[in-house]
From TrEMBL:
Top-level lineage group: Bacteria
Major location category of this protein: membrane
Keyword RNA-binding: no
Annotated source species: Rhodoferax saidenbachensis
Keyword Transmembrane applies: yes
Entry GO CC: membrane
Residue ranges of every copy of the NnrU domain listed in the record: 4-190
Membrane topology: Multi-pass membrane protein
Record protein name field: Protein NrnU
Amino acid sequence: MTTLVLGLLIFLGVHSVRIVADGWRTRTLAGSGKRLYHAVHGLLSLLGFGLVVWGFGMAREAPIQLWVPPVGMRHLAALLTLLAFVLLAAACVPGNSIKARFHHPLLLGIKTWALAHLMANGNVAHVLLFGSFLAWAAASFIAARRRDRAQGTQYPAGTVRGTLLTVLAGGVAWAVFAFWLHGLLIGIRPLG
């Protein structure tokens, strides 16, 4: 469990700089340059991610169950992860109404993904992993919206075409992950 916690601290810590020290980040980028800053950020992110994957794998070998979620939660989680994939796609597909409306769909997608997994799993490792991501994404979303207001950021209106592409891309990515990749990479087939 220590490896998982250390990985989460490093990974989410690196990704929390804009939440807790945005001014320091701006000064560091100006002083050391984008390349160096992003190189260090990337290396620490990879280290943290690797520790999260390793630590979560070890924690799953000896699970400590806190509660047993009802079977129906798996179905609700599947539906929520579909929504999460559409939100993730909205962060990438240009000209969609979802990004125009919510401004930071990636963070909303991470919150939805984490909540879905918390609802469907009741052991300590899952609570640590998905609870941490849920808390981080919520704090990051609030900070991003605050920055948008302070800077007067305007988001362009979306188009029907962009929105349909977003929903299609998110749905296809969800299906590939839910029916194939989740089992291959994580060892759990959420839909049987």
